[in-house]
Amino acid sequence: MLGAAGPFLLPHSRAPPERAAPEERRRKVAPLAAVLPVGEEEPLLRGIFEIGKRSCDVVLSARRLRWSPIVPESPAGDSSMAFRVKEEIIEMKDVFSVKLKRRRFVGQKKGGTLLGITIFKCLHKEENKLTDYAIHLNNFSEDHCHLWFRHLKEILNGFQNRPKSLKVFVNPSSHKREASHIYYEQVSPLLKLADIKTDVTVTEYEGHALSVLKECELQAFDGVVCVGGDGFVSEVAHGLLLKAQIDAGKGIDYELTPVRAPIPLGVIPAGTTNILAYTLYGIKHAVTATLHIVMGHIQPVDACTFSTPSRLLRFGFSAMFGFGARTLALAEKHRWMPSNQRKDFAFIKTLADLKTEKCELSFLPLQIPQEDSHENDRKKKGKNKKKGSKDKWHKIQGDFLNVSIMAIPCLCSMAPRGLAPNTRLNNGSMALIVVQNTSRTEFIKHLKRYASAKNQFSFPFVETYTVQEVKVQPRIKSGLDAKENMDLNATTAEESHPWNIDGDLVEASEVHVRVHPQLINLYGVNTDDLESSKATCNCI
Ligand SMILES: Nc1ncnc2c1ncn2[C@@H]1O[C@H](COP(=O)(O)OP(=O)(O)OP(=O)(O)O)[C@@H](O)[C@H]1O
After folding, report:
1. Is residue 377 within 8 Å of residue 422, measured between CB atoms?
2. In the predicted model, is pLDDT for residue 382 greater than 90?
3. Which atom of ligand 1 is closest in space to residue 202's alpha carbon?
4. Which of 168, 169, 173 best tests ligand 1's pocket when mutated (most atoms within 8 Å of CB)?
5. Is the pLDDT of residue 429 over 90?
6. Is residue 539 over pLDDT 80?
7. Which of 105, 148, 208, 261 is placed for a possible disulfide with 520 were both Cys, Cβ 3.0 to 4.6 Å?
8. ipTM rounded to 2 decimals
């Protein structure tokens, strides 16, 4: 084996020795100048390891680990072989852990014969999937391995975005109650491998995560992670942002100008719809989500405040009023049903009893150039739309089947391009999507388009706007005089309506939604950088 082959530290900018060491004279090792292309950064270490049963010449620099097999010198002195062997390269930014590899007996916890070093890298697989991959660098020498281990660790410690300590929330009641299993079987082993400390709360009731977060010392952690579905992510995101306001001494009122969340939020999908996980990772895959967290891939994301005229209701990313909210309310009433069955039942029943909501929508448009926007607001001349000047509030009154207000694209398996493909994760705007009254058949056609490549908004009864603020005031009757309207508002103000805020059911009447650009960092990547999902809809 290679136990005797010691490493050597390469002093900066020193030329490779003209005459190789005795052992190297017997082997054909590509000279350093050949290993490093012109302009390549300085090597930190160079040594010999056995990799994949071949002796390899290994070079470590701050950004890369590269190796090529050592080819024995041919008796005929043919040197061409040395240049035919393939060099392998690992980018250090893809490495998330390094361990000393030892042979141990069953039950042995410490000690054991040193076999070498194992390097764990994050591998990009098909369809946005990430997986972990181990590379074994074998060498029996303790000194050799410890030196390499120290250098590799030092490089990994230099990646500032990577968390060292996480506060984890697991909702054991999500979807088919698999969140705890997902966490302990798939997520926790990877966090341990990456030497990330965790403080885990398995929630016992709805609102448990929120109350823990309110009392939590966020400075003790580098990030918060939640394992569950969209409703749970929403609770944790709200808790994290609420705690940030409390810590900053902000009053939690209607006019709140919120401060940013101090640490990022990671989402491990274990729910039924998992919109945030699809939007951030392009896939529902716990290992992919964990590796984004471990690698410290950070994505600033816009968030909204949802308020009544007197108080802040919550922080969130998206909301639905009308069909989307009534479907959720019905599903929540049937919590005893299995989750998929409950959601299908609620969807079909709400569709069968299709109703409009009479309300007034006021919104403040955002004037930004939208190259690929599907907007049709400027083209349309709605009967009941009063247009103001460019930066004034606009108003629409009428009977609406559904109103969606979304600060993020909201990708999911039923809508691979997103429920709101015309917004971005952090462009400082929200998509307001208004579905006016229409026949059930036309409404179903519109819903079916979410699953296809066709534009779901190209119907005469659908209007979309790019906005920064929206006020939704339910039940404003047209044709009433000002006094009658005031009386009606007074009675309906107390009457609450279901709202679907990030998959969580909230009861409210008048709601004011404001977008706050890049208010929170989430672990993940920008949807625009992901491969498009191939998921299709099977619900209609
Ligand atoms: N231990 C618990 N028991 C009951 N409810 C809980 C518990 N912990 C959290 N919750 C609440 O359960 C609600 C739903 O959770 P979650 O979103 O994880 O599951 P889901 O509804 O199956 O998934 P999805 O929202 O993707 O459809 C959340 O509002 C959360 O606050």
Report:
1. no
2. no
3. 1
4. 173
5. yes
6. no
7. 261
8. 0.96
